[in-house]
Design a protein that fits this description.
Blueprint lengths: L14 H9 L5 H7 L1 E8 L4 E7 L5 E4 L9 E6 H8 L5 H6 L3 E5 L1 H5 L1 H12 L5
Parallel strand pairs: 1-4
Antiparallel strand pairs: 1-2, 2-3, 4-5
Length: 130
């Protein structure tokens, strides 16, 4: 089982960082078995940063920076407000990709799984993520 990289002390909270922190308790082995993908998020804007979402190993993990154990399957680059909209269901990943709001490098199929993953996470939380 992997241990997530903790948020570095002293860094101010950002929208992306807060979103990733809120995802931590929602991760589990069942979700990992269903997904099998490591996402890297390059979030631009005032509230951005570099984050990973591991849905491939153990019970999953989320953290700041790059995933320390292997390369991501897909890297998603977007603005902070688009990430917020996507995880709240106001912007579908395919729509964001087609409109140029989401840039993808790596496995495009894995990127398109993100919509299902967001739905599963929201169902699990039963609350608005951000």
């Amino acid at each position: 089982m992997t241990t997530p990289v903790p948020t570095k002390p002293g860094k101010p909270p950002t929208l992306a960082r807060e979103l990733m922190e809120q995802l931590k308790p929602m991760l589990n082995e069942y979700l990992v078995r269903q997904c099998g993908v490591i996402y890297q998020f390059q979030v631009k804007g005032e509230h951005g940063g570099l984050f990973y979402l591991d849905l491939k190993t153990g019970t999953g993990s989320v953290g700041e920076g790059t995933f320390p154990f292997q390369s991501p399957d897909v890297t998603l680059c977007m603005m902070d407000h688009d990430l917020d909209r996507m995880f709240n269901g106001d912007l579908k990943p395919m729509q964001a990709y087609m409109s140029g709001q989401l840039k993808v490098s790596g496995d495009l199929n894995a990127a398109m799984k993100l919509e299902d993953i967001i739905d599963k996470l929201k169902t699990r939380s039963q609350v608005q993520i951000v």
